[in-house]
Please model this.
Amino acid sequence: MQFGICASVDRSAELAAAGADFVEENVQKLLDGLIADSDWTGDQRAATSKLPIPAANSLVPGDLKIVGPDVDPEELHWYMEAVLKRAKTVGMKVLVFGSGGARNVPEGFGRGTAHQQIVEFLKMSAPIAEQNGITLVAEPLNRKECNIINTVAEAMTFVRDVDHPAFQCLVDSYHFWLDDNNLDDLKAAMPWIRHVHLADKDGRVPPGESGTADYRPFFRVIKEGNYQGLISVEALGFKDYKNVAPRVLAFIKKQWQEA
Model:
């Protein structure tokens, strides 16, 4: 199993020294799909990384709407073409569709229409992702951050509706625990889980740092589901990578072994 940390490639040397297998970047910061190819320098930054960069999160910026009355399908198509092409250039394999600001349902807007708009966006994006060797994964976000795709079970309704191999599912321990998701739902979704994020429920701090988290039941379901993907720490409070990252990686590896 490969364990990594969500961070800038500028931190890759520190993360490599800490024992991370990879770094997970941010789409907006490294791939920057809103600028022209001639202005993009993310490939140059990626080339300096001391670790592989197989994944990135924050797929769509909040002001580029996927849901609501102001959706521009042509702009979304242009944006996804740019992002997915650049993701391939830097060697990525997974892009995380969290994007709460872009997919949030405006007050008074029909949820059925919102669901269909997200499905249409993903049906447009998945074939482009497949052409570039990328898998898009739906990230269930807790209800304080977004009001649609809040649970693994709900995410799976989108996976089924899109019905494309380049669109699968993610589980994030923080969101999973915060909204009281059911481990049975995760077990049912395991054939479609292609990426995992980790953070403690208390304060979204790095795994083990709250002193209250037990990942073993969560990990047990993932292991029993024969998960073969990446596991990334996506947490707040990583101001001291040199001292915190080794401790966090050691904690999750031990919990994984014990699960």
